[in-house]
Amino acid sequence: MRVIIIGAGEVGYHIAKKLSDENQEVVLIDQNPAKIRRINDNLDVQSFLGSGTSPRILRAAGIEEAELMVAATDSDEVNLIACLLARNLNRHMVKVARVRNREYLQERSLFSKELLGVDLLINTRDMMVETVLGLMEVPGASEVIDFVGGKVKMVSFLISGDSPLAGKKLSDLKAYEGNLLVGAIVRGHGIVIPSGRDAIQPHDLVYFVMKRTELEASLGRLNMANRPMKNIMVVGAGETGMAIAQALDQRRLNVKIIDQDGERCKKLAGSLNRVVVIRGDGADRDLLREENAGKMDLIVAVTGDEESNVLISLLAKELGARRTITRVSKLSYMSVVSAVGLDTVINPRMAAVRAILQYIRRGRILSVAPLREEQAEAIEAEALETSDIVNTPLHRVNFPPGAILGAIVRGEEIIIPRGDSIVLPHDRIIIFALQRVLPKLEELLTVKLEFF
After folding, report:
1. Residue 292: left (phi > 0), alpha (psi -120 to 50), or beta?
2. How many CB atoms lie within 10 A of CB 250?
3. Domains 2-122 and 231-348 share a fold
4. Whole-number mean pLDDT of the chain?
5. How far apart are CA 319 and CA 289, in angstroms?
6. Domain 231-348 carries which CATH code?
7. Within 10 Å of residue 121's Cβ, how many Cβ atoms?
8. pTM
9. What fold characterizes domain 2-122?
10. How do 94-98 and 120-122 pair as beta strands?
11. Residue 347, SS3 per DSSP
């Protein structure tokens, strides 16, 4: 697949790296010579110095043959004009645009096929708000990702030494059969797609697939407290912090937001009803103690400075806060920051990468979620009637080692599969797979050649 990426910032660079590692044909365009040098020094991709709004450069980049274009610069206008040009240069290509301006996002009809023809709009701020609200729904989880409109949840938990799961083989978890499934285990810097012979160990990060309707009961059986979060502190009143505060304002919770900028605080105080707005330095230990940070159910650190966010979360944990969510913008920092003991680290650019991946995978892919350090993926797909996965008991399906079926959704019915389960045409399925087996998995999900 030929992919054109406009903008070599964190999002563009990371998408280019991931696709290059998968031997996709990637072309990256940026106006900044330093960013182009970084691309040329580190990635095996083709690069062009110039504007993504230049028809000449787009043609030189091979726009007519491309299957996907991602416009991910910091300028909404550049991204939208690039999509408009691409619509006329190659009508059959998938176009993805990163957009920040709320006014644009409220006029969705402008991006229709007849006008700009944008297939996917990415707004990282809204994605961050959804991530925070999802984590609040499952207190104690390190990550929560919805599939099938939220009917199925992928939830990860760090296993403590006193957990009832510690030391147990997956084959011994018969009591949970039909309600949840272990899809992946992160151990150190490695990841395992488990079989029944694998055992869960203390300090493992375990990804479970659960039915939303069975969420509370399943967590109770796992001895994972699901105590609601009522007292929340947001540190940082930039675009993301403000959006989180506005979302929480409607939920009748005890919410405080802290920021050093007086003008931001005035604006927030005038637009929020229940949220307490505090002007001050969120990294000031005395201020955090004075505002009872240690008694908070959740601290969300989303200032524009990632070092400050890490410090704020560490101080909050030391003071006794129950959970922390820390925004880190540089993707390369995430694994390092996670290792220092913070509960949940979120990255706005990773959400954008996740949204784009569905257009890269072969088969009828509906959504893709990269797992820790991108060594594996959870994939939501539609089972095609001519693929090898349908109408056969799962124990006879030739799943590649390193892949496991996590759930089958058939209408309103949600099935946590067993060996004798059968996937029917048009079922939605959720599969966990290691990165190295994705090509084989794609073969399993796609239309067989003899169908033609």
Report:
1. left
2. 9
3. yes
4. 88
5. 7
6. 3.40.50.720
7. 19
8. 0.84
9. Rossmann fold (3.40.50)
10. parallel
11. coil
